[in-house]
Design a protein that fits this description.
single chain; 190 residues; mainly beta; Pectate Lyase C-like; 10-stranded parallel sheet
Length: 190
């Protein structure tokens, strides 16, 4: 059985909860205003694809490959990225709702999160070195035994990271968000 191969296709306003998505490899494709909510999108390869204004909330991405994929203004709440195919995994997010998503134990260095809401997302044991969190809401985001070396958090907010439980060498913070590194000590900073 050969896998389907889709190259440079444009998909617009498709509700994949009603129209079955074909398994296979999507190469250099774009998806605009598509709905993947609660979809079992497993065993699909997305290579150099872009997703714009799509809804991925609670989509099942088990063994799904995201290789150099861009998400722009997508709703992706509760997505367990930790279940996707880790081989050549590379993605970036801009203006995305990633609340309650999990990046548990992934190796995703140099990942760009720009203007994203990552409230209550899970980065436990994730390797996110040299990544950028630009103007992101990190309220109740979990960083536990996470490698955050050389990560830039300087414009993000609601940060709470325990320096004793995470690797932070070379990470950038603003004066305003340093309190989130010290909050467990119940200090009064004026």
């Amino acid at each position: 059985m050969t896998d389907n191969y889709f190259d440079s296709q444009e998909y617009s306003k498709i509700d994949f909860t009603k129209t079955k998505i074909n398994k296979g490899e999507y190469d250099n494709c774009s998806f605009t205003h598509c709905n993947f909510e609660n979809l079992h999108a497993s065993n699909i390869q997305f290579v150099e694809c872009e997703f714009i204004d799509c809804n991925f909330s609670n989509a099942i991405v088990k063994d799904t490959a995201f290789k150099d994929v861009t998400f722009l203004n997508c709703k992706m709440m509760g997505v367990k990225f930790n279940e996707c195919d880790p081989f050549l995994l590379q993605f970036s997010f801009k203006e995305c709702q990633l609340n309650f998503s999990s990046f548990y134990q992934l190796k995703i260095p140099k990942t760009r999160f720009i203007d994203c809401n990552l409230a209550e997302a899970d980065f436990t044991e994730t390797h996110v070195t040299s990544s950028l969190f630009d103007n992101c809401n990190l309220e109740n985001t979990v960083f536990d035994n996470t490698n955050l070396e050389k990560v830039n958090f300087s414009t993000s907010y609601h940060i709470q990271i325990d320096p004793e439980e995470n690797k932070l060498k070379g990470a950038k913070f603003s004066k305003e968000n340093v309190y989130g590194l010290l909050s467990k000590y119940k200090l009064i900073i004026e």
